[in-house]
Design brief:
Helices cover about 30% and strands about 30% of the residues. By secondary structure, the protein is of the alpha/beta class. Strand 1 and strand 2 form a beta hairpin.
């Protein structure tokens, strides 16, 4: 039986009831997202709240986290309350569209590990379905709502597979939001890119690109650059 929690250096994430368990995608985004100068942060599709907690560990920002799944929202709320940063973390059980309609503030940083499957096999479990398939949050809707919630100098950081990352770049460009920094992620040396982390902003500049390989080879342990990126969080690093 899978463990119902994941222990980091400074906090514990219970994730047995969440639609998304703690995984590599979330950890990569939480460790990579640029929190510099951010006073207000929004986490879209927070799940267990792990990304919001990671950002809380290394920033002074007030963080709002939303999820359409009720059990995920409840578990994120519990994880926030038991963390060292309960005073700056708030969770909301609401869709992105409804949240934006009621929002009275803009955000300096928006992060998301969004659902991205479109035409692959869909699980019968409705909670897993909404977490991994973008029927309830298409790429175009994500781009549209982010453009409304992002401040003039704000940044949007996201992690997606290569195809969906390209679709998001095109969708945000129509709102004059542009990729400024990318991290291409490889599972092993010699494999193809399987995830892209992208930082977007409202200024069109040269987009820098870096690369990260998680493991040099299966069973050979984590790479130096992955350990360095996540050192503040993982117990064994």
């Amino acid at each position: 039986m899978a463990t119902p929690y994941f222990k980091f250096k400074q906090f514990i994430v219970q994730h047995d009831r969440s639609s998304l368990k703690v995984g590599t995608d979330a950890v990569l985004l939480g460790a990579w997202a640029d929190v510099s100068d951010a006073k207000k942060i929004l986490d879209i599709g927070t799940g267990s709240g792990v990304i919001a907690l990671m950002l809380a560990q290394r920033s002074h920002a007030q963080i709002d986290a939303i999820d359409i799944d009720e059990e995920s929202f409840k578990q994120a709320t519990e994880n926030f309350s038991s963390s060292p940063w309960s005073d700056k973390l708030s969770a909301f059980n609401i869709s992105l569209k409804n949240f934006e309609a009621a929002a009275t503030t803009k955000y300096d940083l928006i992060v998301s590990n969004p659902p991205y499957f479109t035409d692959s096999y869909k699980p019968t479990d409705p909670q897993r379905f909404s977490a991994r398939h973008n029927d309830q949050l298409p790429i175009t809707e994500l781009a549209d709502e982010v453009s409304k919630l992002l401040s003039a100098e704000g940044k949007f950081c996201v992690i997606l597979p290569v195809k969906e990352a390209g679709q998001l770049v095109l969708a945000l460009r129509s709102s004059q939001i542009f990729p400024q920094k990318e991290l291409w992620v490889y599972s092993f040396t010699g494999k193809e890119v399987f995830r892209k982390l992208i930082l977007f902003g409202r200024t069109e500049i040269f987009c820098t690109r870096n690369e990260l390989t998680i493991e040099t080879a299966p069973g050979q342990g984590y790479s130096r650059e992955y350990i360095e990126l996540t050192r503040e969080y993982y117990l064994n690093f």
